[in-house]
Every structure is written in structure tokens, then in C-alpha cells.
User: Fold these one by one.
Assistant:
Number 1:
Amino acid sequence: MNEMPNLEQASAMTSSKISAKKVQVYYGDKQAIIDVDIEIQPRSVTAFIGPSGCGKSTFLRTINRMNDTIDICRVEGSIKIDGEDIYDAKVDPVQLRAKVGMVFQKPNPFPKSIYDNVAYGPRIHGMARNKSQLDDIVASSLQKAGLWEEVKNRLDEPGTGMSGGQQQRLCIARAIAVSPEVILMDEPCSALDPIATAKVEELIDELRENYTIVIVTHSMQQAARVSQRTAFFHLGVLVEEGSTQDIFTNPKDKRTQDYITGRFG
Amino acid sequence: MSLFWLVVIVLAIALVGYIAGRARALASAGGDMRDLHSLPVYYGANVAMKAAVPAFLILVLWLLVQPFVVHSNISGMIPESAVGDGSSLGLVMAEVRRTAEGLENAVASGQMTDDFARNARTDFNDITTRLKDAGQIVTSQITQPIMRAAQAYRIMVSNGNFYMSIVVLLAAIAGALWGVRETSAEFRARNTVERGIQVILFSAALIAVLTTLGIVLSLVFNTVEFFRLYPAMDFFFGLTWSPSFSGRGGSSELGILPLLWGTFYISFVALAVAVPVGLFAAVYLSEYASPRVRAVAKPMLEILAGIPTIVYGLFALLTVGPMLLSVFGDNGLGIMKAGTAVMTAGLVMGIMLIPFVSSLSDDIINAVPQAMRDGSYGLGATKSETVKQVILPAALPGIVGAILLAASRAIGETMIVVLGAGAAARLSLNPFEAMTTVTAKIVSQLTGDADFASPVALVAFALGMTLFVVTLGLNIVALYIVRKYREQYD
């Protein structure tokens, strides 16, 4: 019986896609993330919830080293993806970001055609040997993003001319096109109306089959709808992490309970 | 009454009106500011505005119109016979004006009585000497018709000034009274002042527009005059530029093509230097440089824009020219004969334009939303890939606008060309040969004794007009592109 916890631990070690240990993030002198430990499961949706300024977006951005683009930002601790430390000196952040895609709060298609938006990543990474292969990547990415039927006849039109919901799904297609393993989403629906939000949520649920998804959201209903696991952040600390059902029906921490029942936040 | 005192008095009336309006408004509310519709200052400002603005508008209009009225009246007085051979009505009128001013100054300095200046009918010798003694400029013997005209001129001007003073003062007083009368607690002074401010701002904008119009018109009139003396076909399509200053320009060949060629050639060299260097500097400053480097480097680069162009000209003449000559001259490759050449002027002009291109491009690159960069980095693109594929295409219309503005600056540049490119009008492909530009030739046509009746001098206006049309066209295209770009992100 003594072996049981060990086995469980071992299986958790091997099965988790992203494993963060003692992560600290500083903006200049200010500490934004304090001692965060989290295991993120592959092929599932993990939601980060918490009040504004709690550090959930900051933590999300450490997973693909987007914080490197901010001069004063400093990260300590270890984050491993598939057992490899992404803050190791050997790791090229540019390559990492191809593996860990990101979708932003506001849809940000490039001022290019729909086709060029999706083809952008495959082109810079040299993923297609010829034009027809590139066409295939673009088409399959748009299909996976549920946008193909709407845009297949107007791939030459600018991506900026679409509706907000379509733009966000285009950004998801753009991220899928470089075949990432992890997709990070930073409040992907906050700029969308309810119908577009429903479509994106449906898409996230479908993408779960092939990708590990981490989503930051302000909407607890959204976290409950799309995620399997939920992590609650407060003041830079990871307060509680567990299955979504447990967090919403049976929170262990008082702060989590107060937040999900709407007492603050 | 001199103009200065007139302005002072109108301002004084406005000040008195301000105080009176403010006091009356407060009095009408029983001294309680809260019962007024507007703050007390607005009532004062309303009166002051009504006193000063119409008065000054009348003053300005009167000053603009009076010379035309006087001129047309007086020139009718001059008989045909007074306009001698080889002279013109314009020259005689200039003489009349000088004489009238001479009389006025002589009276003002007490060397002539007003009565004498008005009524002298005979003995023009005496008057000429007396004017000369009074230190006035009199070019030739004053003849009877000129004297008559000058006397009439002087009287008309002084009468005009007198009536102008009366009308302006009446307008100021009437405006002040009107403003004070309508002042009461219910009067919406705040809204009236707002409208008044709008009028003042509008007239400021109007002045800028009218000045442009005036410049264009003065160019147009002289250009038309030039084309009356010199065939337009020869001007626009002539391949030779050789003005002959003797013989009233009869044997001059005034073809603009060599000059335009020089202008565009030098501008092309300048842009070939300025656009890549400026653009790369802008990309470095906005995308790569740390805030500390940027804080130092950007102002340093912009200092270049503050150097007077004549200093650049000296740099071309004394440094760049000899340097090029040592490489491409007789001791080197042997394709350059003198320090002044298209290359010399073009290189230096390119350096001058770097801050133009970099500063404007930097602003435009910074205006590209951060979300675009994030999107690109998030897909695993490097910085230079992001710049090349996302930022420059997004900023391209604005950058093109910046380049066109720099181009119109290059085309209009004069001093660097005068000192760096030489003065020979030549159609040649060799960038190490001396050439000259439209602007440099405008300078050389108009410096020295310019006779504005000959095509050799008037051609300057036609050159200026051509240049104006070219740069205006470039500016319109640039503004159009920049505006189109703005619509994308706002």
C-alpha cells in the first residue's frame, strides 16, 4: 500500500503537460507572481480565474515566454513542458512560441488577407514545401477553427474586415496553423458578443481533443462551461487548483468560495 | 493719427468695455455672481470682443483695399504723354508714390508747410531741390503731371487714413455700447464668447489660406507675363538653358528640362541615401533600442533637422566634395572633374533628410498597435521577421507619405545645391558632373540687377510656379496616403 502514493505521483509527473514549480515573476521591484506550483494536464482545458490584477494573465504569459518582450519583467523558478525547462538557456523562445501558441484578449489579425494571416506562421517556420501544401495547412487550420465554410470563398479579403467573433476564430486558426501542442488564451471572449462567445467556446471544447489549452477568463460561467480544471489566483498567489466541478461546488479555501459566490472580484 | 495709436485706442476702448461689461453684469445680479448666467469675465469679454473684433476687421480690410482705390484713381490722372519712351505706367506711378512720400516726410520734418505741399503749382526745380535737401529720394526732375498726381495721391492717402480712423473708432465705440447694453443677468455671455472665439480662430486659419492664395496669384501673374514674352513650348521642352543677360534676353534659351533633370537627379540621390538610412534608424529606434538608448539617440538624430541648410552646403563644399574628388577625381578613377557634382549635393542632402524620414517613420511605426507585435511574436516570429512581415506592411502607407514629404523637401532645397552641385545646367547621366537645379537658377536669375520686364528675370517665376506645382502634387499625394493610413487604426 505504501507504493500507491508513489505511483500516483509518478503518473502525475508523466501525465502532466506543463509543470510549474516555485514560479516568481517580478515587474521591476514589484512581485506579480508568488510561489506558483501547478500541473497542467494534456488534452484538456484549464481555466485560470481570479479578480483583475491577480496575476493570472502574467502567469499565462510565462508559459510561452511572452514576458521576455517586456524589458523590466523577470521570471524565477521552473516551468517544464514535457519535462523540458523552458527557461533553460538552451531553449530558443522563438521556437518555444511556435510550440505554445497564444490567442489574445482582443482579436489582432494582421492587416493582410485571411489566407496570409493563417499562412503567416507556416511561412516563417518553413512548414510547407510548396504552395499546395501551404493551401492544405491553411484550409485545415480554418476548418479546425470552424471558419472554413464562412471564408472559403473570400480568402483574399483582409482579415481586419471580418466581424469580431470571426476575427478571433481567425486568430485561433492562425495559432493552430503552426501545429502547437499548447494553446494559451488570454480572455479570448472578452471583446465578443454572446453569440460569438458561444461559438468560440464550442470551438475550445472541440480543440481539447488535440491540444492542451490554458484559458484565462473573467467569466466564472465560462470557466465552468469550457474547462475541466480550474485554478483560482488571488494577489499573485495560486489559491486553489482542482477539477472545475470541485472548485465551483466544493471550494476548500474561503477566498475561492467568496470569489465564486460573488462576494468580491 | 498713426496706425499704432489707432490700435492702442481701440484696445483701450475694449479694455474699458471689459470693465464696464463685467461691472454691469454684477450690478444686474445684485452683486451675487451665482445669479448670473455666465461667469462675470464672460460678460466683460463679450463687450471687449464686440468692441475690438469688428474694428480690427474693418481696419485690416481698409488697409488692404485703400492702396488699390488710390492707385486706380491716380493712374487715371496721368496723361499718356507723361509716360515716356522705354518707360511704363508702373514706373511713373512708382515715381508718383515716391514724390508723395517725399512731400509727406518733408512736411512731417517741418521743411515744408502743409499748404505749400498741397498747392505748389510752379517751379518744379525748386521743389526737387527742396525735397532733396529734406533728405528725400527723388530720382529725376519732377515734372508737372507727376507733381499734380503726387499731390493728389498725398491728399487721397491722408484723407483715407483720416476716414479710416473715424470709422474704426466709431465701430469700436458702437460695438462696446452694443455689448454693454445687452449685458444683463440673463444674457448668455458664455455662449456668445464661444462663438466669438470661433470667429477669431477661423480668421487665423483664413489668413494662412489667403496667404497661400496670394503667393500662388503673384506667381501666376508673373508667369503669365513671362509666357507672353517667351513661348511656353520652348520653356517646357527646350533642352538648353543659357540665359543671356544683355539685350533684354532676346537671344536667351530658357529650356527648363536641364534644370528639372538636375533637380530630380539630385533629389533621387538624396532619397537613395535618406530613405534606407532613415527607415532603418527608425526601425532600430522603435523596435530594438532600449528606452535609454532611444532617449539619447532620438533627440541626437533630430538635431540634424535643426542645422541650417547653408551649413550643410558648407559641409558639401569643404568636406564631401574634396573627399569624393580624391576617390573619383583625376588622382583616382578620373570620372570627376571638380568637387561640385550631383553626387556631392545629393549625398549631403540625403544626410539632411535622414531625420525627416526617420522621425516621421518612427511615429508611424510606433502607431502600429502592440497587439500586432504580440500576435506575431506569439506565433514564434523573430523581431526582424515581425518588422518585415507585419510592422512595415502595416506602416507602409504612412512611410510612403513620409518619403514623399522628404522628396518635396529635396526638390525645394536650394543652398546645398548652390554650394554643392555647381551652376552648370546640363543634361547628363554622370552623377559626378556638375549640374544645377530649378531653385538654384531662381536664385541666380533674381540676384543682382533684375529687370522685371525681361524674360531673363521673369523666367524665375515660371520656374517657381513649375516647382510649386510639382511639390504641391507630391504633398497632396503624401497627405492623401497618410490620411488613408490613419483611417485604418482609428
Number 2:
Amino acid sequence: MPDEVEVIVPDKGEVFDIELEEDLLEANRRIAEENKQLLEKHRIRAVDVMGSVGSGKTTLIEKLIELLKDKYRIAVFGGDVTTTIDAERIKKRGAKTLQINTGKECHLDANLVRKALSKIDLNEIDVLFIENVGNLICPAEFPLGTDSRVVVISVTEGPYTPLKHPYIFMEADVVVINKIDLADAMNVNVDELEAKIKKISPSAAVVKTSCKTDYGIDMVAKALGLL
Amino acid sequence: MHEFYMVSQLVEKVVEEAKKRDAKRVIEVELEVGQLSFLNPEQMRFAYGVLSKGTILENSHLIITTIEAHVRCKACGFDGRPNYADDASYHVSAPLFLCPNCGSPVEVLEGKGCIVKRVRLEL
């Protein structure tokens, strides 16, 4: 009796199929889950702020800091392809800021956020806003490990944003329609815009805001469970 | 938009598998892309052509299968495909995440992934 079990190996030149079943998005999701656990351990409420370029993401975060800074210790990660313009703005509001420049990527990913989390003292923070790269497509596919995800659009983008980019709205817990003070000038019906969002993302809370007049900022904070 | 990024991860993964098995070349790679992902198969094929050059994947064939969306309703138990907006302004039909049966919000079970299913190697 031979001691060794006979092993059949493929011959040279043989064609071989390997079943992989590996999700390429899984790696990001795994790191996002680790981020989530780390944030939970330090009792930090984290919000991923997504939206188009110029929709008012940074201004909304500035306004939320103003509203919440006596209640929470706030930090902000600013995601951009390049520059620190937004981070400088936020810093002036008194929140801890860290700029994440993606270089070329069109979105933040969980790994970049993990790196950023290792650079700050998590015991000194209650609320973390992560401003994603201005883009209505890619960020949606890369969860970062936050408690909630916000999509900010504005009436100056016209009435069709939810129709043109339906997919990002399905990832949102809160959708902000910003710059409603300009709705008349833009000839945009805000209620119709809201109905379009509700159709795509029925479970998302839709909040109308004007960062110019501060209208609705408290409602955003409430929708995020911060007030 | 991030097709290039995704395909570079795909190429990396397949090179690793091919090395592990000491393969001579990669013949075929089968990829499943969910309908609810943000990936355009046409752009993925283009990226594959560019990124596979000079690797063991060069001249291999990329097969992309689109996986339809599959949703479930917690309220009424509906399990199946979502309805799509027939609004002409969408041009591509957009999925609606309301239960086709009772109108409650649904959860997505399938259609968001980008999965490397199978790699065919020549040893």
C-alpha cells in the first residue's frame, strides 16, 4: 500500500477553469465595516456627504457646525481631487479638519478614510462629517463605514438631477435640496423635485434648505439624528 | 467612471490567481456586473484591453454578464424584480425601489456586485 495519496494534476498545456466568485467591491465593503466598528467603539456619529460639484456640500457642513458646535465636538474630512480650499473654509469654523486628496480618483474609498481616521484622536470627537468628492456617480458605490449618507443637490442644477442620476439617490438616507431661495429664479418647482426623489428613494428623508437664509439646516440635523 | 479602477483590480486579482497555478496564459475571464452597479460594460472592455497589455491576461477574452436587480419587500414578502420607471426622460430605465406589489420600500438582494466568476487558464 502506498503511503501517499495519489494526486491528479493538470498536464502542461491543459485548459483549466477556476471558479473565483470574488466580488471586486467586497474589499472596500470589508474596510468600511472595520471603519464602522472603529467609529462605533469611539461613539462617533459619522456622516458621508455626497453631491454634485457646487451643490453646497461645504456650506451645508459649515452651517451644521455652527448649529451643533456647542453640543458636539466635530471633525470634518474633506475629500477632493486636489487643493485644500474647502478644508481651510471649514477650519475657520472651529472644527478639526483633515483634507483627503484622492489625486485622480473620482470618489473617496474606505481605505482612504481608514488612513484619515488613524491620523486623528478619536476620543476627542463626537461627530464626523466626511465630504465626498463632488460627483453624483462613483461615491455611491463605495461605502465608507458611516452611519448615514447624505446627497446634496441644488435647484441651480435644474429640475432633472434625480432623473439623470437615479442611482446615487438609492444609497441616500437623507437628500438635501439646497438653494431653494433661488428656485423661482431657476424656474424649478421644488415640490416636483422632491416627488422625483421620493419615487427613486422612497425611504430617504428629503429636506429643503437654503444655506443663505439658514432655512432647513436644523431639519437636516434632525434627519441625521443630531438634534 | 471608476471602470479603470475596477478593471485594474480585476487584472491584479487574475494575475495573482494565474501565478498561483503557474499558468502559461489566461484565455478567458468571466465577470458578472450588477445592473444596479455604476459600471459601464463598454468602458470596462476598453479598460481591460489597455490594462491587460503586457500581462499574462494579454489577448484574453473578457465576458461580461449583466445581473438583473432582485429585490425583496419586508412588508408583503414580495421577492423578485423591481419595477422600472417608464418615464421617457430617463432614457435608460431607472429601477424603482418601491414594492411592485404593495408599494413599500424594498431591500436590494442582488444587482449591486462586480464579481469575478471564473477564469480560464492554460497551464
